[in-house]
Write a structure and sequence with these properties.
- The chain contains 15 helices and 12 strands.
- It is of the alpha/beta class and 309 residues long.
- It has 3 domains: 99 residues, 3-Layer(aba) Sandwich (Rossmann fold); 97 residues, NadA-like (Rossmann fold, 3-Layer(aba) Sandwich); 79 residues, NadA-like (Rossmann fold, 3-Layer(aba) Sandwich).
- It starts with 6 loop residues before the first helix and ends with a helix.
- The structure holds 1,3-dihydroxyacetonephosphate and iron/sulfur cluster (SF4).
- The site of 1,3-dihydroxyacetonephosphate (13P) has 10 residues, from loops.
- InterPro entries: NadA, NadA_sf, Quinolinate_synth_type2.
- This is Quinolinate synthase.
């Protein structure tokens, strides 16, 4: 093939040439995390996208994340190494169905998890991520009814934390749904000292066993600060790359999925490869385009989130 021998070096020089920044999510493969300028959770990545002075953003994550970066930067080139890198949560919430759902609850304010399409964002009042969802819902006046979309697991968790009733859209993440409560309990018996860290996209039976629940960044910070030296990680195992780098003497065990598959890895996130990162920078494509009317409507709820975080 025409790929350079030294992909790391080639990516570094293309980055300079284009004045590009690489923003990566923790669920990306280790090599991609290692060449990123910034690695973070969805909120951190949005904040970086909102403040970057780069001309080009290469987003090593999934489509809704790159879309968010483009909504914040309509005049910049936003590259996504593989346009097929979608998300089951975003897919679970088609705009026409959601518009009907919204029309059935006309007095409700719409809070949408950032894991949704630009069209859904354009139909929303406020966007949230797993790191600020509780904080944002707490800022809504108690008499104001709320629709929360599209993740029912995060929605349930937020309802529990805030004591607020919310109307939930029935979506879920195919990765966080695969964790087996039974296997986590068995693992805990084998590793009684281990702390269980879980993402709020997990289902309630798994969350019940967690010592700590949070966004990817929050889980990483917790693991670093904890006195524990052993952890069971109930989220996509890509995060373990950074945990292990930051705490080489601690041990991180991926929570097992129900079947003997590697379906705790996000098949969308893992479509991105170092080769595709290189090719995207070299060819300045594939890139994200959003119709201006949707971009303008989707920007407001994202800005509200950034103000309320
Ligand atoms: P956070 O990194 O914001 O916790 O999101 C997790 C996730 O599933 C992203 O798709
Ligand atoms: Fe979507 Fe789940 Fe993959 Fe995150 S891990 S991108 S929520 S499918």
């Amino acid at each position: 093939s025409n790929l350079p021998q030294d992909l790391f070096g080639a990516i570094a020089s293309l980055k300079k040439e284009l004045n590009a920044v690489i923003l990566a999510h923790y669920y990306q493969e280790g090599d991609i995390q290692d060449i990123a300028d910034y690695i973070g959770d969805s909120l951190g990545l949005s904040q970086q996208a909102a403040s970057t002075s780069a001309d080009v953003i290469l987003f090593a994550g999934v489509h809704f994340m790159a879309e968010t970066a483009k909504i914040l930067n309509p005049d910049k080139l936003v590259l996504l190494p593989d346009l097929e890198a979608g998300c089951s949560l975003a897919d679970s919430c088609p705009p026409d169905k959601f518009a009907q759902f919204k029309a059935q609850h006309p007095d409700h304010i719409v809070i949408s998890y950032i894991n949704c399409t630009a069209e859904i964002k354009a139909l929303s009042d406020i966007i949230c991520t797993s790191s600020n969802a509780v904080k944002i819902v707490q800022q809504i006046p108690p008499e104001q009814p709320i629709i929360f979309a599209p993740d029912r697991n995060l929605g349930r968790y937020v309802m529990e934390q805030t004591g607020r009733e919310m109307v939930l859209w029935d979506g879920s993440c195919i990765v966080h749904e695969t964790f087996s409560e039974k296997k986590i309990v068995q693992l805990k018996i084998e590793h009684p000292q281990a702390q269980i860290l879980a993402h709020p996209e997990c289902e309630t039976p798994v969350l019940r066993h967690a010592d700590y629940i949070g966004s990817t960044t929050a889980l990483l910070k917790y693991a670093m600060q904890s006195n524990s030296s052993e952890f069971i990680i109930a989220t996509e195992p890509g995060i373990i790359h950074q945990m292990q780098k930051d705490a080489p003497h601690k041990s991180f065990i991926p929570a097992p999925p129900e079947n003997n598959c590697n379906c705790n890895e996000c098949p969308y996130m893992r479509l991105n490869t170092l080769e595709k990162v290189y090719l995207a920078l070299k060819n300045r494509t594939p890139n994200i385009e959003i119709p201006p009317s949707i971009q303008q409507k989707a920007l407001q709820p994202i800005q509200r989130m950034l103000e309320m975080s």
